[in-house]
Amino acid sequence: MFQDPDRYTRDGLKRSEKGLLGTMSQAENAANASLAFLRSTSKAATASSDLIRTTCQEYQTAVNYGGGGNLSGDLRNIAALIAGGFQTKIYYTSIGGWDNHSDQAANRQMPVAILDDGIGGFLEDLQRIGRADDVAIMAFSEFGRRVEQNASGGTDHGVAGPMFIIGEQVTGGFYGEHPSLTDLDNGNLKVTSDFRRVYATMIKEWLGFDDTRTILKGDFDTFETFA
């Protein structure tokens, strides 16, 4: 998960980390494979933190990512790492403000605008650095909304929801079946496509990893989403 690169320094934990690394480096622990893995991982993270922070701080772009929330800065920093040649396959960031149990019509405008500006700026910046063909975005929510408005002018937690795949290599269109707004399941949209099909599409068709069963614990058909 990508957020503020300065958090990689974890200043408040430096003293305890030194003690932990010292314990893991003791001779009697050297034969423990798990501790050896933790030790090497911690050292690698410490070594890379300065590089990540410097790369993000020195990145120069005139592209406007919008000014709302943390998403614009997160996406700009991700673009910086891509431009800097980092080999990370997956970056994850998030934006809040969607859980509108009241006054949804007014409250929904801001996160939609932030998402639009952030992704728009990110795609423009990828074009500028020549990496637009190498990146696909998947946007999703952890839960959907119910169809009917509640007494507070909002909507409550629901079952089904949309997912978006965005990028130069994406064949645009609507995949799956449109849900009915009247044929509901206890007030919820009926699921027309298993969300794991979207994950399978990204894992297999974009990342090139065929063994989706290991990750998704099942076999799921993919969508023909990429050109």
Describe this structure in a few short sentences.
The chain has helices at 14-24, 33-58, 71-83, 104-107, 109-128, 195-206, 212-216, and strands spanning 137-139, 144-145, 157-158, 164-166.
What is Rg? 21 Å
Residues in helices, as a percent range: 40-55%
* Whole-number mean pLDDT: 88
Number of strands: 4
- Helix/strand-derived category reads mainly alpha
Low-confidence regions = none
Largest sheet: 2 strands, antiparallel
Tell me, briefly, the overall form.
globular
Number of helices: 7
Q: How are strands sequenced across the largest beta sheet? A: 1-4
Instruction: Determine the strand fraction and express it as a percent band.
Output: under 5%
Order of helices and strands: HHHHHEEEEHH
Distance between the termini: 28 Å
What does this structure look like?
The protein is mainly alpha-helical. The protein has a domain at 136-227. It contains 7 helices and 4 strands. The chain is globular, with a radius of gyration of 21 Å. The two termini are 28 Å apart. The mean pLDDT is 88.
Architecture blueprint of SSEs:
Blueprint: H1 14-24, H2 33-58, H3 71-83, H4 104-107, H5 109-128, E1 137-139, E2 144-145, E3 157-158, E4 164-166, H6 195-206, H7 212-216
Antiparallel strand pairs: 1-4, 2-3
Helix pairs in contact: 2-3, 3-5
